[in-house]
Amino acid sequence: MILPNPLFHGTLIRRYKRFLADVELDDGSQVTAHTPNTGSMLGCALPGSRVVLSLSGNPSRKYPHSWELVHTDGVWVGINTLLPNRLAREGIENGTIAELAGYQAIRAEVPYGEGSRIDLLLSGILGKCYVEVKNVTLVEGGCALFPDAVTTRGQKHLRELMEVVRQGHRGVNLFVVQRADGNSVSPADAIDPAYGALLREASQAGVELLAYRAVVTLSEVRLERRLEVLL
Known about the structure:
The radius of gyration is 18 Å and the shape is globular. It folds into 2 domains: about 5-75, CATH 2.40.50.580; about 85-230, Trna Endonuclease, Chain: A, domain 1. α2 (about 150-165) runs parallel beside α3 (about 195-205). The model has no long low-confidence stretch (mean pLDDT about 95). The chain is an alpha+beta fold. It has a 9-stranded mixed β-sheet. Strands 3-2-1-4-5-6 form a 6-stranded antiparallel β-sheet, with no helix packed on it. The protein contains 3 helices and 15 strands.
């Protein structure tokens, strides 16, 4: 996944109202950028951090810049939550995610469950495979943790995947770690113990847990390798 051009480098002043961030660009100007991440961004929104912004070509946007990357703990981290679904699809199509190979069709945002939309629905001679994709940006001691805030939505998705499996289909919860220092993935029990408990229940019920780490550079983000999910 090639990052959009042009890119603008700067220093984070503050993130606020969930979707906004004030940034001082390297040329000394200050902009307010859209933050395409609804999570807490724990550890990834520290004032003074180096950041990278993209620029939208849509003239009607109130905030034309979007926050793409942040440098923290010595690595670049992809904070745009729109990327993991695209990375997952790219990884399936180019064979990086070998566990999801063999399907003839991929559809995105297909309605299912209780008013939800599955991130990716794979189908073909192997049947149907429902894939929920989760963006992971929090890493502590080499372990990537999800979620970074209480997520009732994430809990709902796990219940819906369990129902998919009960109906005889594959259900997959795919963690995409957008930073190079994550060596495994675990539920963030200290942040959302209910999610951790439900993730373990889902695994026992047959929901497959996959995790892949992405290489994040100043020009691209691409899936690199599979990580172990430790429960």
